[in-house]
Amino acid sequence: MQYISNDINETVDKTIIPIIKSLTEGIETDEEIAEKTGIKLNIVRKMLYKLYDLRIANYKRSKDPETQWFTYSWKFEENELISRIKKDSETELNELNEALNNEEQNMFFVCPYGHVRFDFDTAADPYYEFLCPACNEELEYQDNTEIIENLKKDIAIVEGNYNSFLEKIKNS
Ligand SMILES: [Zn+2]
């Protein structure tokens, strides 16, 4: 996993960021971007279409009256990217807060062999009667203090990242 994510980070650092930076500086064509960044033209094109698929880059096509060739002028959709990051962060925070609320409002019971984890209502259901449906072992009460602490830490991290992102937008 680490290896894969390093690979993705490298792609982002070495191609996506320089391409977006070129677009924000007003460089519009794939050839000019390739020239400016030193990234191969076919990779620049591939990345531009990837950004287009994600709707964070857009292009206008125009025909050169002399050569009859099409030129593509690319534009970075900064507002689209910002609203996307905002929406994703808010969704993630909502999910984490829901999970935290669920942990704080409920008691949990687990199979000692790790088969199931039920909240009180499910564990007490006559269908289960505090027995594991997989191995019939009696379910044990689980202290979820650590889970709650970890969720609170995650929420603080996501909130911190989100706030510094908002701060950066405000100051740019
Ligand atoms: Zn079990």
Gyration radius from CA atoms, angstroms: 25 Å
Bound molecules: zinc ion
What overall geometry do the principal axes of the alpha carbons give? Answer: elongated
State the end-to-end CA separation: 34 Å
- Profile the largest sheet: 3 strands, antiparallel
**What is the overall number of helices?**
6
Strand order of the largest sheet: 4-3-5
Strand content: 5-15%
Oligomer: single chain
Overall mean confidence score, pLDDT: 91
Count of strand segments: 5
Q: What is the SS-derived class?
A: alpha+beta
List SSEs in N-to-C order: HHHEEHEEHEH
Uncertain regions: pLDDT < 50 for 5+ in a row?
none
Describe the structure.
The protein is α+β, with helices and mostly antiparallel strands. It has two domains: 2-76, Arc Repressor Mutant, subunit A (Orthogonal Bundle); 80-171, no CATH class. Helix content is 60%, strand content 13%. It has helices at 2-24, 30-37, 41-53, 78-105, 120-124, 145-171, and strands at residues 57-63, 70-76, 108-110, 117-119, 140-142. A hairpin with a 6-residue loop joins strand 1 and strand 2. The mean pLDDT is 91.
